[in-house]
Structure formats: C-alpha cells, structure tokens
Amino acid sequence: MAEWNMGNIHVRNWVWEKKGQQFKGDVHNFDHATLVMAGAVHCRFTRKDGSLIYEGDYGRGYTNGPYITIKAEVVHDFTSIEDNTEIWCVYSHRFPDGSISEHPTGFAPAYN
Known about the structure:
Layout: E1 2-6, E2 9-16, E3 22-26, E4 32-38, E5 40-46, E6 52-59, E7 67-70, E8 75-80, E9 85-94, E10 100-101
Antiparallel strand pairs: 1-2, 2-9, 3-8, 4-7, 4-9, 5-6, 5-8, 9-10
C-alpha cells in the first residue's frame, strides 16, 4: 500500500499480484471513491452488525464497472478476482468540521 496527495485529493492504493488476495473489514468516517485501475475485485458491503448491504464484482468489462462509491460507516471487504489487480481509494481533504478542503489540512480522520 502506498499513499500520496494528488492535487486536491488523497490517494491510497492497493496492489494484489494474485487472484484471491483480500483486504477485509475496512470502514471510513466519510464517503469516498474506489477506482479499479487494473484487474478486478469482488467487494462486499456490510453494516457494522455484519448484515449484508450489497456485494458485486467491479472492473473494466464487469457489469458494475471500475468505479465504486463507498459510503461512510459501511464496512467493505475486497477480494481480487484477477491477477495483477490494483485499486485506488480516493479521499477528499477535510477540515475537522467535515467540510471539504482543496488542500491537505492534517485532519487524519478524513482518510480513516
């Protein structure tokens, strides 16, 4: 995993070399977007109590496409379904009151 600021957004990427690799139980304070840059993922969305909201496959050529909107406080698990899969999680910079900033503010919960 790597992280960087790119203009007015913060990016965190994940790379899986092999099909079947997982990242489980991620949850964030604010909505964010995930882009499938290469390969494909299966994403499972649940409430904090474990009840299922939705699950599906994402990537170029898949019904859901390569763009994933992840709502705040929704637990999400990723499983690579192709070799050489890369995703980018994209976050807005935020002020402590939750409003969006065009520049990094140092407010770490914006990326958690």
